[in-house]
Design brief:
Helices cover 77% and strands 3% of the residues. It has 133 residues and is mainly α. Strands 1-2 form a two-stranded parallel sheet. The longest helix is centred in the N-terminal third of the chain and has 29 residues, at 2-30. The model has no long low-confidence stretch (mean pLDDT 83).
């Protein structure tokens, strides 16, 4: 009986964390300084382990589903997705470096992180077309 309660509690916690991550991902759609994809992927991971209902919803979502499916298989990302991801990353980094940060060290740090992220994205295999449904 106690094992069932622990599993239920664990699933509840994962669902709550997944929901918070999803909220951050949705905010990231609107605010370029917050990345969408990592939060959506983390949400899908949490929902996979915490809630079949939410997991099915997110993987079948018109906007979020293709993001998850592209990362979930070994086919890579579309060129369009790579361009969007790199463009949004650099837009956010440059806006933050110019308008938000006043420390040279912090500006340098986020630029280095953006370079590493860009290299990572460029190394991902490029697929020919986007997955639908």
């Amino acid at each position: 009986m106690q094992k069932i309660q622990k599993q239920s509690f664990r699933k509840l916690i994962l669902t709550v964390i997944g929901s918070l991550s999803l909220a951050l991902g949705i905010i990231g759609v609107i605010l370029p300084v917050l990345p969408t994809t990592p939060f959506i992927l983390f949400s899908a991971w949490c929902f996979y382990r915490g809630s079949d209902r939410f997991h099915n919803w997110i993987i079948n979502h018109a906007y979020f589903g293709p993001i998850i499916k592209e990362y979930g298989d070994s086919e890579g990302m579309t060129k369009e997705s790579k361009v969007k991801a790199i463009g949004m990353t650099w837009t956010a980094v440059l806006l933050t470096a110019i308008f938000v940060l006043d420390s040279f060290l912090m500006r340098t740090l986020i630029i280095i992180i953006a370079v590493i992220g860009t290299i990572f994205l460029l190394k991902i295999k490029t697929r020919k077309k986007r997955i639908t449904s």
